[in-house]
């Protein structure tokens, strides 16, 4: 039985205060794994205001998110000066951007997953439900709007009860940042076997031993049949024997592009496409 398609929308500012309230930090590699074990994750977006220029800590954190399959949507923090007191107030909000993106992409997913405790998202939640989407909200009672967890029609998950699944401390204090900094980049032609991290229409992102962003493009699958909906034929338990085609170090997080080397997997994907269409 195929898994439902899900999209993650994370209110980064709200999640920051949630983590501070909890007293522990989320391990985003484990968070992504939590959802990929349950759904076909078609997108995972992290919305966060960012200082301009971003701090070193922010750049490092962004690397962690990108490495584990998250797309970052950000805009500069605004500095507002109180004319009476001279106090500088930092303001940044991406609620509108999150809501617009969710509405524009709703045809791609069946499950709408929101990380936020902000009641401003109630109209968006209602809109998703009216479109027939399953809605799951992840936040924490006590700092979340009561409407988000008191309604019987909202699947609310209290993050405070999920430390075993999501916290950094439960994974031995591992840091994806350190993994990234210490990782060796591969040479073109090197081969490895990667598992599925996430699937997009244009390709498959793979877990890899180099701790970098790794894309297996649709065009490198060795499939002659036309694939109209790649997420529908790739399974989260699939393993891909690939060879490194290119290494790009021009971005904050290095990216490698790989080609499928396993003829049997290409044939299996062909079979799935024919069975689907």
TrEMBL record:
Top-level taxon in the UniProt lineage: Bacteria
Pfam families listed in its UniProt record: NYN
GO molecular function: nucleic acid binding; RNA nuclease activity
InterPro entries: LabA (IPR047140), NA-bd_OB-fold (IPR012340), NYN (IPR021139), S1_domain (IPR003029)
Coiled-coil parts of chain: none
PANTHER family, sorted: SLR0755 PROTEIN (PTHR35458)
Protein's UniProt name: S1 motif domain-containing protein
Organism: Chlorobium limicola
Lineage: Bacteria, Pseudomonadati, Chlorobiota, Chlorobiia, Chlorobiales
